[in-house]
Amino acid sequence: MNKHLTTRGARLAAGLAAVALTATACGGDAEEETTAAGGTSSGSGCETVNLGFIPSWTDGLSMAHLWDSVLGEQGIEVEMTEISEAAPLYAGLAGGDVDVYPSAWSEVTHAAYMEEYGDQLEDLGAWYEGAKLTFAVPEYTDIESIADLAGNAEMFDGRIVGIEPGAGLTATTKDSVMPTYGLEEDYTLVESSTTAMLAELQAATDANEDIVVTLWRPFWANSEFPVKDLADPEGALGGSEGLHTLAREGFSADCADVASMMENATLTDEQYGSLENMVVNEYGEGRYDEAVDAWLEENPDFMESLQA
C-alpha cells in the first residue's frame, strides 16, 4: 500500500478553495471515530480516504490519482490500494478494507459483483457515460464484425487475446460473445493481463499481422494503436454503461463532504480522454502527480463541477 499526502501549490489550492470542504469538516473539534477502512471521521468529513483500484485498468488508475490530488490539497491523507482483479476489489470494498473504488463498471461489466456485493456498497453516481466493451482488430484486417470471426480462425491462429481472468470483459467474452457467435470450437480465449494483451497488440501491429483483442471504451489504446471496433450485431457484449464511483457502506455518513464532491464529479469524453492520455502516455509512471496537475490547469471547469 502506498501512502502519500499531496501538497501542490497555490494554483490548485485556490481552485479547490471553492469546494465546500472546510477545515472543520476535515478535523475541527468534533469527536473522531474510526472508519471501517481504518481512517478517521469527524462530523461530516474525514482525515483519511483509502482508494482501491486496479492499476492495469487505466480508467481507475487515472481517477485514483485525480482524487489523490483533489483530496490531498484539502489536507486529507489518501491511501492508494492497488488490487490486481475486480473480485477482490469488490470484496474489499464491501468489507470496508477500502473506502472508494473510483471507476467501477457496475451497470453491465461488473453486474455479477454488484449482485453479490451491491447491498453492502454505496453508489455515488456515474462520472462518465457511454462506456462499452469491444472486440477490436487492426485497421488493415479485412473483417468488420464479430460474426466475421466465424470461419476465419486461421487468420488469428485461433486466438482471441484477452485480459485478466477475473475481469468482467473476460466473463462476458466466455459466457456470451463466444457462444453467441459460435466461436467456442475454433478459438481459444487467451486470459492473461491488460499489459500482456497490449504487448501482443503492439507486436502484431508493428509486424502488420492480424490479431483480435478484447478492448473497451474509454481507453487510450483505441487511439494509440491502429485498431477498429468490430460490430456486435447480436449485442453479446452488452450495452453502454456509466463509470461509477462506489464506496463502502457508511462512507457518505463518515465522509459527507468527500462523498458530495464525488457525487458531483462529471467528465466529458474529451476531458477523460485527455486525463488518461496525460497520466498514461505523456507523463507515465512516476510522474502521475505532474500529469494530474497539468490536466487540472487545462480543465478548470472540473473543479467547478465538484461544488454542491
Architecture overview:
With 308 residues, the chain is an alpha+beta fold. Helix content is 36%, strand content 22%. It has twelve helices and 13 strands. A hairpin with a 5-residue loop joins strand 2 and strand 3 (40-42). Helix 2 (58-72) packs across helix 10 (269-283), helix 2 (58-72) packs across helix 11 (288-298) and helix 10 (269-283) packs antiparallel against helix 11 (288-298). The longest helix is centred in the N-terminal third of the chain and has 15 residues, at 58-72. Residues 1-43 have low confidence and may be disordered.
- Using only C-alpha atoms, the radius of gyration works out to 20 Å
Order of helices and strands: EHEEEEHEHEHEEHEHEHEEHHHHH
Average per-residue pLDDT, rounded, comes to 86
Task: Name the poorly predicted regions.
Answer: 1-43
Question: In percent, how much strand structure appears in the residues?
Answer: 15-25%
Structural classification:
alpha+beta
Helix content: 25-40%
What's the number of helices? 12
Number of strands: 13
Give the end-to-end Cα distance, rounded to a whole number of Å. Answer: 31 Å
Principal-axes shape call? globular
